[in-house]
Fold this sequence. Notes:
By secondary structure, the protein is mainly alpha-helical. The chain has helices at 13-40, 47-55, 59-68. It is elongated, with a radius of gyration of 16 Å. The mean pLDDT is 81.
Amino acid sequence: MPFVTYFPGRGTVRETAYLEGRAEGRAEGRAESILRLLEARGLPVPGGVRERVATCTDLALLNAWLDRVLTVARAEDLFAEDADVPG
């Protein structure tokens, strides 16, 4: 279901900035969840993994990692299926 907004100034740069902020907030929340789950599972989280997850803004990719976080043996394995994705 698409997000419908009744933001004052609908269709303006202000609304676009507002919606981008919401998307960034969702991405940050997913990244935090991924890192927290890795830690809760007792998996070491190297700095490179932490940085890659924390700086990702692609919600589809974060969702894929969130699905994988429950089954990976190492934190680095989150990215195993992303061979075609740079970074």
